């Protein structure tokens, strides 16, 4: 693998949206040469339990724990504290919970990691889900204005709270990068390779387009994991990320 391909591999997160730890471990083993991190979301976490994170970590894999914590500050802080002990590399909250909630989560994670003498996971905040388009945002959610305005407001609030970055559509990556600087992480789901269907995602871009706008990490799920040959699909995503090199 070339240096350029290896750098791209580190930035590719594959979403393990399956029901069992065995399925997740099998996919992760198969795809680890092509992906730098694996996402454990609600489906897998609620089906297989917290131990699935430890099992993946025991394989030497990096894990993004995507549970989108959102509640009152104390509840989220205690949940984040508990999750820190699982050893995930990234975990997230929802920016809609507000400044105090995000600050409480970040502080709880840092304190618990120090107590356990382990590296603290990067804490990031979800902005507007990539399945929400302008019509849904205005008519169904009753939110005024443009989607990107809300994304930007939450990105700035996340940075003010001291968190490391956000989850956002690749369509907002460039604006976030301009507003929050080069060191603020932008994790982008809604990545759809040229050869795949968008499914229930609305605000999508290709891997190459997202990287060009400044995405730190790309999250890809079904285009890889639901493919007839997941390894081949992962290789094709990497090829798009590196311009075919």
Automatic annotation (TrEMBL):
The UniProt keywords, alphabetically, are: Decarboxylase, Lyase, Pyrimidine biosynthesis
Q: What does the entry list under GO cellular component?
A: cytosol
Question: Could you say which residues bind substrate here?
Answer: 17, 39, 66-75, 130, 192, 201, 221-222
UniProt enzyme class? lyase
Isomerase among the record's keywords? no
Q: What is its EC number?
A: 4.1.1.23
GO terms, biological process: 'de novo' pyrimidine nucleobase biosynthetic process; 'de novo' UMP biosynthetic process
| Role of this protein | Catalyzes the decarboxylation of orotidine 5'-monophosphate (OMP) to uridine 5'-monophosphate (UMP).
| SUBUNIT field | Homodimer.
Please state what the protein is called.
Orotidine 5'-phosphate decarboxylase
Organism name: Desulforamulus ruminis (strain ATCC 23193 / DSM 2154 / NCIMB 8452 / DL) (Desulfotomaculum ruminis)
Q: What gene is this protein a product of?
A: pyrF
